Amino acid sequence: EVQLLESGGGLVQPGGSLRLSCAASGFTFRSHAMSWVRQAPGKGLEWVSVISANADTRYYADSVRGRFTISRDNSKDTLDLQMHSLRAEDTALYYCAKRLSYSSNWSYLDYWGQGALVTVSS
Amino acid sequence: QSALTQPPSVSGSPGQSVTISCTGTSNDIGGYNSVSWYQQPPGTAPKLMIYDVSDRPSGVPDRFSGSKSGNTASLTISGLQAEDEANYYCCSYTRTNTLVFGGGTKVTVL
Fold this sequence. Notes:
The complex is a heterodimer. Chain A starts with a strand and ends with a strand. Chain A has strands at 3-7, 10-12, 18-25, 34-39, 45-51, 58-60, 68-73, 78-83, 92-99, 109-112, 116-120. Chain A is an all-beta fold. In chain B, 0% of the residues lie in helices and 44% in strands. Classes of the chains: A mainly beta, B mainly beta.
């Protein structure tokens, strides 16, 4: 059974930093691109970032580029999101999600974690 | 990258059909066939319902269908059921190698 378990969320002051992690199991992690998607309270989905299976390609949303860094450890089946210079508008539930197994297109996300809540407030 | 445009809500009676539109630009929906749809009941994680504009992942009922014309994609739910009540989001790959979601549509079963 595929499982994605996010951790590392919490309350942080504006300008602060936080690192989210996602522990994956139940599939061949090293073969799948992975994404982060966030959802502000009561709002819609916003894609944040993607990293290729071997970590040689990373893309970011304009809203986080230069402040967030996505990374992965294929030996530990973990995905990370390092967040710096956090703003109030970064407050959201952050989901990690895996690429649809039977498609080479990384934009299709077939399994999602339950999310890690990040609150940016003074 | 601006969000794709979806109607805030649609509704229908059990057994009826509803269609949700999703309008983008030539930089996203109109330029690629990488359109997907997600279902999200309140308090749960999103679930992939449609990919490649009109394909269904394993386990998704064939009541759900997708299509695209120009810069607009559509999701149709036929034979609406109470369990279909949820928020639905469209998503498209973009020319800048990013993803853009729609603002979401709440489907209400009357």
